[in-house]
Structures are given as C-alpha cells and as structure tokens.
Amino acid sequence: MSELSHVDESGAVRMVDVGSKPMSRRRATAAATVTMAEATAGRLRDLPKGDALATAQLAGIMAAKRTADLIPLCHPLPLSVVDVQLDVLGDRVEITATAETTAQTGVEMEALVAASVAALTVYDMAKAIDKEMAVTDVRLVEKTKEPT
User: Fold this and answer.
1) Which among 67, 66, 54, 65 is positioned nearest to 125, based on CA atoms?
2) Residues with catalytic annotation?
3) pLDDT above 80 (res 80)
4) Residue 97 included in any domain
C-alpha cells in the first residue's frame, strides 16, 4: 500500500506531509460533461431557476474554494484563481475548470471538484425537464508545476 500517497505502511489513512516540499506555482485543469436532450441544452438559459450556466459557473468556483472541507485528506490551499467555463454543444454541456495556486502541493482536486460541482449544478437546474441527463467523463486534463 505504500504507493498510495494517503495510506501509510500499516494501511492507515494519513494526510501527506508536504512541509519539506518547496513552494511552486501549480495549475490544474479538469473537465466534466453533462449529456442531455438537445431541447434541454437549447433551453438552459431560460429555465425557471434562472441562468443555469452562470449559476453552475459560480457553484464550481465556490466549490473549489471548499475542497479541503469536502475531501478529508486534502490540504487547504490559497487559490490564486479558479476559472470555470461551460459550453453548450448540441446534446451536452462541456465544463472546463482551472485552478491555480502557489503552494507545496497540487490543485488537481480543486479543479476536479469545481468541474464536478458545476456539472451537478447544471443537472440540478435542468432535472425537471430532462430525466435522462447524465454527468460523465469527470477527469483531470492537465496539471503543471513551475518553480517560484
């Protein structure tokens, strides 16, 4: 089990000690997809709960800032920027979330949480008119680390 970063040699969970790691500029991009009927995609901005895309964008940004509260062993990070973009493409909404920080550990979980929560918010906003929607393909697209 030693290859799992959050599990020690005895199998117990632990928070990774990043105290001796140097500070570096870190960036991660994640994506998610919400598949739906084309008619649903066409109606997203006119839903009764308001502008679903702006709501989902804001929800993703807010969620990234709360990642350490949601994922038990994540370090709280000082995020310098979170960007969430939503694109309506025919029968789906493609979501891309990017998070950046200067810290001793990466921001991939923040980007993944942002993309996931934005996707779930789109789902919540449109569930009344489309029972066949699905949140799919939540994934890390890229992560980078540069010395400071």
Assistant:
1) 54
2) 124
3) yes
4) yes
7 inside domain? no
CA distance 44 to 32: 17
Say if 5 falls within a structural domain. no
Q: Per-residue pLDDT for 78 more than 50?
A: yes
Cα–Cα dist 39/144, whole Å:
38
73 φ, ψ to 5°? -105, 10
CATH number at residue 141: 3.30.70.640
Count other Cβ atoms within 10 Å, centred on residue 66. Answer: 13
Residue 18 located in a structural domain: no
Reported confidence tier of residue 24, pLDDT bands at 50, 70, 90? very high
The values of phi and psi at residue 3, to 5°, are: -75, -15
Rg (C-alpha) for the chain, rounded Å, is: 17
Q: Provide the number of structural domains found in the chain.
A: 1
**Domain enclosing residue 61, as ranges:** 24-147
- The DSSP bridge partners found for residue 28 are 99, 143
**Which one-letter DSSP state was computed for residue 43?**
H
**What would the mean pLDDT of 9-34 be, rounded to a whole number?**
90
Torsion of CA 117, 133, 43, 122, to 10 degrees: -10
